[in-house]
Model the fold of this input.
Amino acid sequence: MNDGQLQRVEQVKQFLEGSEALEFRGLSAEEKYKWTETVLVRFSYLRLKKAEKGVIRRYIQKVTGYSRAQVSRLIREYKRTGWLKKTEYRRHQFPRMYTPSDVILLARTDELHGWLSGPATKKVMEREYGVYGQAKFENISRISASHLYNLRKSNTYRGMTRRFTMTRPTVSKIGERAKPDPKGQPGYIRIDTVHQGDLNRYKGVYHINTVDEVTQWEIIASVERISEAYLVPILESMLVQFPFVIRGFHSDNGSEFVNHIVARLLNKMLIRFTKSRPRQSNDNGLVETKNGSVVRKQLGYAYIPQRCAELINEFNRDYFNPYINFHRPCFFPVSVIDHKGKIRKTYPYDEVMPPYEKLKSLPEAESCLRPMITFEALDAIANQMSDNQFAERMVKARSNLFQQISRFANWVA
Done:
């Protein structure tokens, strides 16, 4: 900056009064320090009067853009040393303990032993030096297990090794890993999917099976695909088909149910969402046994086209689900403690009954029913036909269903 024409304090004062609206930019930090030192020397700042010093301070503030405190620090530094120079920041660096040759030894050891853990690798290098007398391992053998991982991230190490690891699955935080404890109350359902075969790389229909843990009340529905567009509407319709209030929803760890869409649906309905625990195969065992003894037994294993999902749902709603819940007896376990103190489950004949009879036998069962649902209305459904009569009706409807599915499959082919 060329301001050599300003030689007296009065001139500087007039300059400040005439440049109040101006703003100075473009000077680097080093140039500001050098210019400030030049101004302080030109006006003999240390011999000026107090008012004159204030003018020079404002002048420096105006041109450099520094605050009043920063200008004061610069002036103090000038008084102390007689010059101004910006201090260069120097980052502290620790001395390097492990050389590239040490990193090469580490990389070679990892390759030979298959990338062991840090403590195990450190022990190998300690043995190389201490037990087998390999002098080149003297320095690297003193490394800490934690710093060993730092060397593995260095460019030297990565240039020496090529290690490939399998993709690790992400842990989903949706749902709670727990086994539901209904405490003898209905409303804690288990859910699972059953795939109805493939044909020429075409996927078949999917069955959604839901079972109440206490009463074994079962609702089955079918969807074309396992996706949000199909699952959410069918889940909503299935949950309202249970005659009692749903309090819990338990599934395995499949992504068709463990996702944000299903979680929001259950949260809206105030239903607790749990999922199976690792290494606990019985957490969802009830619905899995029902997949074989009910779904597979009635619908088989053969391929059913996805377009037939609506036909199957009509059969499920009108025949299959009422048959399962009102006319098909189930075994209900009774827990007993043997002489060794172990809990064992028995299946007495007196506890063999349809799910509806089990629901009625529960204490205070009426309090568990959904609003607008009464046992009088359910009794009318249960007593409309005998077990054999309704089973015969269901078998005929199933036969008609398979004929329609066969005609549809032949037409598509």
In short: The longest strand covers residues 188-195.
